[in-house]
Amino acid sequence: MSENTTTTPKTVTRPKLEKPKLYKVILYNDDYTPREFVTLVLRAVFRIAEETGYRIMMTAHKLGSCVVVVCSKEIAETKVTEAMDLAKEAGFPMLMKTEPED
Ligand code: TYC
């Protein structure tokens, strides 16, 4: 048999790349934050159009909570901090939380 045969590998191994985890931003209803303020914050912080923001706000108002966006952990946490800082400054108890997507 020849000494200089070349062999082709039968299998190719690729390193498994972890899919980045996604996080939900959830808006919770309360009895004190004005509807207009919630809609305004959704527009200012999440760049959500007024009509969509109104629908998200009304869903939280009626059902108790609503998913605002799904994004990376870092963006979700930054946006929640920005939104809740605005609420705190204005003296409203508006609550948002991040939660890993299942
Ligand atoms: N429930 C509030 C009101 O009637 C409005 C509201 C909606 C507050 C959604 C928070 O996440 C919220 N003024």
Annotate the secondary structure layout.
Blueprint: E1 23-28, H1 35-46, H2 50-63, E2 65-71, H3 73-90, E3 95-100
Antiparallel strand pairs: 1-2, 1-3
Helix pairs in contact: 1-2, 1-3
The structure holds L-tyrosinamide.
Residues 27-31, 33-35, 38, 57, 60-61, 94 line the site of L-tyrosinamide.
Briefly characterize the structure:
With 102 residues, the protein is of the alpha+beta class. Helices cover 43% and strands 19% of the residues.
Structure description:
By secondary structure, this protein is α+β, with helices and mostly antiparallel strands. It has a domain of 69 residues: Ribosomal Protein L30, Chain: A (2-Layer Sandwich), CATH 3.30.1390.10. The protein contains three helices and three strands, in the order E-H-H-E-H-E. Strands 2-1-3 form a three-stranded antiparallel sheet. Helix 1 packs across helix 2 and helix 1 runs antiparallel to helix 3. The longest helix is centred in the C-terminal third of the chain and has 18 residues. The radius of gyration is 23 Å and the shape is elongated. The N and C termini lie far apart (57 Å). The structure holds L-tyrosinamide. L-tyrosinamide binds next to strand 1, helix 1 and helix 2.
Order of helices and strands: EHHEHE
CATH third-level topology of the domain at 32-100? Ribosomal Protein L30, Chain: A
Q: How does the major sheet shape up?
A: 3 strands, antiparallel
**Associated small molecules:** L-tyrosinamide
Strand order of the largest sheet: 2-1-3
Radius of gyration, in angstroms, nearest whole number: 23 Å
Subunit structure: Binds to the N-terminal domain of the chaperone ClpA.
Pfam families: ClpS
GO molecular function: peptidase activity
GO biological process, one term: proteolysis
